[in-house]
Design a protein that fits this description.
three-stranded mixed β-sheet; five-stranded antiparallel β-sheet; SH3 type barrels; GMP Synthetase, Chain A, domain 3
Length: 172
């Protein structure tokens, strides 16, 4: 589980249900989000498939995603069953959405920041660090719980606990 999933009890609950389901399908749980939706809520579960060819550089270049429609369908079917068994925890009306992370993959777990080292990222912090909350630059890696970035030639070490949202930035 991630620090982000711990903020909302419902998100935390869905995370605990989704993680073993994803693992059973050979997938990684990337993110669980609860969004407002017309007439109810949207529970968004983002999944990914880590490349198995062992080529880290290729994985970084492609962001590692290899999620198929069949993967999304299988996880959706199993998640629907799990959520039905826990309906007392769920909003009365909600829509379940299972998706792959796409090119702007969220970075949620500390291991995500290690895995995608060398990539361009966008990071937003919960509170200002050096008078700013938004950072866009090259992810250098993680050291002692600090996410290291190079932004316009300047080095930043952002405490993981301060990160509100982060994602890869695809360069065209």
């Amino acid at each position: 589980m991630t620090k982000l999933s711990q903020k909302d009890p419902l998100v935390s609950h869905v995370w605990h249900l989704a993680e073993p389901i994803c693992q059973a399908h050979g997938l990684e749980l990337v993110e669980v989000r609860l969004l407002s939706d017309r007439g109810g809520a949207c529970v968004r579960v983002m999944i990914d498939r880590v490349r198995r060819d062992g080529d880290v550089e290729v994985e970084r270049e492609s962001a590692g995603s290899g999620v198929s429609l069949d993967d999304c369908t299988a996880v959706s079917r199993d998640m629907s069953t799990a959520l039905d068994l826990h309906e007392d925890m769920m909003p009365k009306k909600y829509r379940l959405e299972i998706s792959s992370p796409g090119l702007d993959r969220p970075l949620v777990k500390l291991s995500d920041f290690e895995r995608f080292s060398g990539q361009q990222v966008s990071v937003r912090t919960e509170r200002p660090l050096d008078s700013r909350r938004r950072f866009r630059g090259r992810l250098e890696g993680v050291r002692e719980g600090l996410v290291e970035l190079t932004v316009d030639g300047s080095a930043y070490a952002i405490p993981y606990e301060m990160i509100e949202r982060a994602n890869l930035v695809h360069e065209f």
